[in-house]
Design brief:
The structure holds two protein chains of two kinds. Chain A has helices at about 1-15, 15-45, 65-70, 85-90, 115-120, 150-155, 205-210, 250-260, 275-285, 285-315, 320-325, 330-375, 385-415, and strands at about 55-60, 80, 95-105, 110-115, 125, 130, 135, 145, 160-165, 165, 185-190, 200-205, 240, 245-250, 270. By secondary structure, chain A is α+β, with helices and mostly antiparallel strands. The chains are: A alpha+beta, B alpha/beta.
């Protein structure tokens, strides 16, 4: 204890270098924990792109493809499912709710999704967040459209603006525009920082109305199309959708329901568990995590090296001090202990300060980062990996202390009492 | 108190520095050891203090052979029985006068035990009083004059009444008046503590103050 207090007093005496060393270790630790936080945050945010949906159902096909077009609006469905099949499962006793998606059209490169009021009421992301309508009202009329926040922002549309939808997916206005049936912006949705923001939403009837009179993928001849003004919801019948999201009444039912859907006799269907599919997809992106791990490693190495340098350089100034301590009875073990205790104090203080820095930064930056990057930084107890990092910093700090300590021990032996500085 | 016989020492594989066939000091003696620079004075002190280990021969201090002890044993022995005073800059700058004086007791339990149950602050105050620095105990050592620092160093070597006090040119940075004054205070304190004093210097003007004067080249065969 007496030796430890001596180490402490010695560090206190060199306040400036001590605090600089602690600060540089703290910076590395903060960066390291920050990278880890981003990694966990990115994984969680990704896994929670869609929440509370137990199954995603589409026509028979690859599960990745289904996930990509239904959740990320990437690629497209190779087949549709009939509305009557959808109705069957919507009314299924084990099903709590469903959200239908009808895909295939776009506007200026953004996907247009046909859905119903359940989307606004039931859709959840990041565990329990719901879709918010920040301006206007969720579309109910045939030619009403809601804009995802990014669509509204990048195209600069306001409520009441006319939107012409392009058939198929095209960056620019295509050859096949549904320009006979323009939509009116009825709602602008709040930011979710998920792919929801990059889509436009119409009713299933709107989707049907656009494609009325179409045959075999070709538009009707000019003059033959039904005028938009004459269309009424009662006259429209929804035939097909692309996919639907499903929530079962109890989680126990989910797997049974998945089997039932996958073996449905009416038509070939695929049902996937979004959590599982998202995790699989994330794993294929693991090189991103690896890259973060490499960055972390270098950050750690540089931080520890800085600590070694600062302890080592301070040692030279303290040769005399060590010789004095030795002359008045401190054995080599005590000299070694003194210096190792110093580096232990430095690394523990650095690790503590670094953790405090990153957590307070997180508390301040969390809303901003979430809004700007769609990345939710969880303020939670350190993950096992973060604890490992902290352990490595402190452990390596103590080990590094042995380098100058052994050198001091050698000096003290070689110097004997002869140092005259 | 101290008997050397057949002592031989060299740094590593280098040329021999010391070859002392015999040398002895009686208990309570105040010995002045002198010799030109490079004659091995500090090396001899290192051996007497148990910091350096003799290559051959016997170094008996308090009837224990330092040459036969392990490093850790010598460290313990030094901590318990030897007080050491350096030439200069021999205080730990970030500790107060009190903390500097009590340092040997804080470093080794053996020295602590020699206080006979008296508290460290009390023991420090007592020895500081003897050396005329009783009023400076809570000063930072950086604020002291050179002469005051040297007394703090003496107090540190004397706390816990070690049997052997070794002083390595402690007065070389003091002017003549202060030298005499310091040495007299040192003598009184050593007498009070019952310590034997080995005082090394190349300044022969101090010789008359001592009981006995020894020229290192005369006892060391290497220098001849």
């Amino acid at each position: 204890m007496l030796l430890l207090s001596l180490a402490w007093q010695s560090l206190k005496n060199r306040r400036l270098t001590t605090s600089l060393t602690v600060f540089s270790i703290a910076l590395s630790v903060a960066l390291l924990l920050g990278v880890e936080l981003v990694r966990v945050g990115a994984r969680d945010s990704f896994a929670n792109t869609i929440s509370q949906t137990d199954l995603i159902v589409g026509a028979r096909g690859g599960s990745l493809q289904l996930l990509l077009y239904s959740v990320f609006r990437i690629g497209s469905a190779s087949n549709n499912i009939s509305y009557s099949t959808y109705e069957t499962f919507r009314k299924h006793p084990a099903v709590e709710w469903t959200i239908p998606y009808s895909l295939g059209d776009s506007h200026r490169g953004f996907r247009v999704v046909g859905t119903n009021e359940d989307f606004y009421a039931r859709y959840r992301y990041r565990r329990d967040r719901r879709i918010e309508v920040v301006a206007g009202k969720a579309p109910t009329g045939i030619f009403e459209i809601a804009l995802g926040s990014e669509v509204a922002r990048s195209l600069g549309y306001k409520l009441g603006d006319a939107v012409v939808i392009t058939h198929g997916v095209s960056e620019h206005r295509g050859i096949l525009d549904h320009d006979d049936k323009p939509f009116r912006v009825a709602a602008i949705l709040g930011r979710t920082a998920t792919p929801v923001d990059r889509s436009l939403y119409v009713t299933l009837y709107g989707m049907e109305a656009m494609h009325l009179d179409w045959g075999a993928g070709a538009p009707p001849m000019p003059g033959e199309e039904t005028p938009a003004a004459k269309l009424k919801i009662e006259d429209l019948k929804v035939h097909e959708i692309s996919a639907f999201l499903l929530r079962s009444k109890s989680r126990i039912d989910t797997l049974r329901l998945q089997r039932e859907i996958n073996t449905f006799a009416g038509e070939p269907l695929t049902a996937i568990l979004p959590g599982v599919a998202l995790t699989e997809l994330w794993r294929t992106l693991s090189y991103a995590e690896d890259a973060l791990a490499v960055v972390s490693f270098f950050v750690l190495a540089v931080g520890l090296l800085g600590m070694l340098v600062s302890i080592y350089t301070s040692l030279n100034e303290r040769r005399r001090e060590m010789a004095i301590l030795r002359a008045i009875g401190a054995g080599p073990q005590k000299i070694v202990f003194l210096l190792v205790a110093e580096s232990a104090i430095l690394s523990v203080a650095g690790a503590g300060l670094g953790a405090a820095m990153i957590y307070s930064f997180c508390a301040v930056a969390q809303p901003v980062v979430e809004d700007k990057f769609g990345l939710y930084l969880p303020i939670q107890a350190p993950t096992p990996l973060a604890w490992t990092y902290l352990g490595v910093v402190v452990g390596a700090g103590i080990l590094i202390g042995f380098v100058p300590a052994i050198r001091a021990y050698r000096n003290a032996l070689a110097d004997g009492l002869g140092v005259r500085l | 108190m101290l008997q050397i016989s057949g002592l031989r020492f060299a740094y590593g594989a280098g040329a021999p520095v010391l070859d002392v066939p015999s040398f002895a000091v009686e208990r309570g003696e105040r010995v002045f050891l002198f010799g030109p620079s490079g004659s091995g004075k500090t090396t001899l002190l290192g051996i007497l203090a148990g910091i350096l280990k003799a290559d051959a021969g016997e170094v008996r201090v308090l009837d224990r052979d330092l040459a036969a002890m392990s490093g850790a044993e010598r460290d313990r022995f030094r901590g318990a029985h030897v007080g050491y005073i350096f030439q200069l800059f021999n205080l730990i700058p970030y500790l107060s006068v009190m903390e500097n004086i009590t340092l040997p007791c804080r470093l080794t339990a053996e020295r602590r035990a020699r206080l006979n149950g008296v508290g460290m602050p009390y023991a420090a105050a007592k020895v500081a009083q003897q050396l005329g620095i009783g009023n400076l105990l809570h000063e930072s050592v950086a604020n002291l004059s050179v002469g005051q620092q040297q007394r703090v160093a003496a107090a540190r070597s004397l706390i816990g009444t070690p049997e052997l006090v070794i002083a390595d040119e402690p007065t070389s940075s003091l002017d003549y008046d202060h030298r005499e004054q310091f040495i007299e205070l040192l003598f009184e304190s050593c007498k009070a503590a019952g310590s034997t004093l080995i005082f090394v210097s190349h300044d022969r003007s101090l010789m008359p103050l001592f009981d006995r004067c020894v020229s290192l080249p005369e006892i060391n065969r290497v220098g001849r």
